[in-house]
Design brief:
By secondary structure, the protein is of the alpha+beta class. 32% of the residues lie in helices and 33% in strands. The chain has four helices and eight strands; from the N terminus they run ββββαβαβαββα. An eight-stranded mixed sheet has the order 1-2-3-4-5-6-8-7, with helices on both faces. It is globular and about 45 Å long. The chain starts with a strand and ends with a helix.
């Protein structure tokens, strides 16, 4: 059942079938969802990792600051309910615009005053480079431990090149 959420954001946010969605003033529908993942093979780190995925379902993304505000309202809500989770974001590369998406997400992240720390990485698989981030709440019970594990994992990725 579709439910309108009362989150502080410029666009109305709805939740249905484990997905968040909103429509912009220009008629673009964005879909966002979180899914539990176990990508890293490190039991300590994997137990609370959620992948964050968002894309326009209809139309093409536009330069609209209200999209950023709405997306980060959802991220803020996620961390308020899942303080001890680590958020995993990877820029969609299906249309080869992943580098631009990474830059935009980095810009959005800097423009928000959430108590979050972001660890960026890139992974190469053949000719494809994946750009991503791990995001950790500064209120995470295991903040120091996770930060240390994330840094070790990212260093291992870097050294494996």
């Amino acid at each position: 059942m579709k439910e309108e959420l009362s989150l502080e954001s410029p666009y109305k946010i709805f939740f249905e079938d484990e997905e968040y969605f909103f429509n912009t003033n220009s008629g673009i529908k964005y879909i966002l969802y979180f899914k539990d993942v176990n990508y890293f093979g490190i039991s300590y780190l994997d137990k609370n990792i959620s992948e964050f995925i968002f894309n326009p379902e209809t139309g093409k993304g536009r330069n609209d600051k209200n999209i950023r505000l709405t997306v980060f309202s959802i991220i803020k809500s996620f961390f308020s309910k899942n303080t001890d989770n680590v958020l995993f974001y990877i820029a969609d590369n299906s249309d080869n615009k992943h580098k631009a998406r990474k830059r935009l997400f980095n810009k959005w992240f800097k423009e928000n005053n959430l108590k979050l720390e972001k660890f960026d990485f890139q992974l190469k698989d053949g000719d494809i480079i994946y750009y991503g981030s791990l995001i950790l709440s500064e209120n995470n019970t295991y903040y120091s431990e996770y930060k240390s594990e994330i840094n070790k994992t990212l260093m291992a990725f870097k050294n494996a090149k």
